[in-house]
Queue: 2 jobs
Job 1
Amino acid sequence: MANFKPMRGDYAVDQALYTVEANAYDPNGYNLFNMAGNVSEWVDSSYEQDAYEYSASMNPNVNNIYNAKKIIRGGSWKDVKYFLQVSSRDYEYENQPRSYIGFRTVHDYLGADLTANAMTNTTVRKRKNRRSSIK
């Protein structure tokens, strides 16, 4: 279940009339909360209606500083389920605050073995293993 508008004109069916805390619903199969619904999310790209038609990329990032329309994705508490898929794309003007738009911070995660501390520990373990096999 997610925080969205499940039926026409009825926001209360999912037990929420507006945004809710991140853990108000169960996490998805990846143990992530509110990946769809609750608030739509700003995307870094400017909105161009034909971006996918005229781009060679499957993920075009249009950064037009003169275009105040910014892409939003993921659906919100006020949207019907169609907008809860990441493939749906809409826009809002960048200078207009809305109660149904937020943002998500993300970073690349390459695994614990690639952190500086883990690399040092892995290198030390390999050296110890080489030494022990030489004996």
Job 2
Amino acid sequence: MGPCADSPRAAGDRLAAALHHAAWPLCFEEYCMTFPRSARFCALGLAALALGLGAPAQADGDVTCNAGPQSGWAKMSKLKKKAWLEEWKLLKMQVEGDCYEVYARTKEGQSIEAFFHPVTLKKLVVFRRGQEIYRAEGFTG
């Protein structure tokens, strides 16, 4: 038996407890084995869970800014100030293609990914959990 076998919880409660347990994958497998018909789906669910937790959402797709040569771009320090004015907690800034890309948390604590035009520092598009939550008027990139 797995590490959850001696648990006093019922089988239905065992899954919830397993998520907080150090050996939760073993508990999850044990839970799956209590329902043999759905063992295939449990295995697929466990695999999907493992893949989903390992990588952040890739929301950017093909955002293009048509910004021209980098010699004419604004400094990233100005972009830092712009993120601060948005009341975002800055996590990471980088060049993505020909745009500035910012990873941050909003004042509500939500993770976002935002793209700014590197010459004007205009906010172009913002994603949260892979969903677009803001797009600048007229921006098609």
